[in-house]
Amino acid sequence: MTGYEMKHLIENSSSMYWSGNNNQIYKALVQLLNAGLVTNVIEQQESLPAKKIYTVTPEGLTSLKAWIMSQPEAPDVKKSFLIQLSWADLLTEDELAQVVDQYEKEVELQFMIEREKQRRDKVSPNRTPREKILWDLIRENMLTAYQSEIDWIQRVKSALSIT
Fold first, then answer.
1. pLDDT per residue over 78-116, tens digit each?
2. 54 has which bridge partners?
3. HSE (CB half, 13 Å, CA atoms) of 95?
């Protein structure tokens, strides 16, 4: 795929977090090319600029597989809202309700965005049936995490008698 297609895939995937720009992708592609982990072919287009299509080499696949097989990290559960909540006893009941409501709206918005991405199915490559299953399960994980957070917010509101 092209660098542009890679950037689009990463931007539209909730599981591939990255906030970089085009320069970073192309710099990384040049490094991969120089290391022999990818090759590229220039494809001429009528009335459009030429495209560089990158393909992973056998050495690149070996390196990628080694990374995939490396020890997975435990989930990173850092939520700034929990820090806010730990100090929220300083707030009035109305202020606390406002903060919790704002957080709830943000989580619900992210849940809806993720669900819409899933509905549109623009992200997963679907090159093989197993790859489609894997990407579907990744999206399910994201939705489950948001739903779990929404359920937890409801418990917070109930425990604090926030309406």
1. 899 999 999 999 999 999 999 999 999 999 999 998 888
2. 40
3. 8
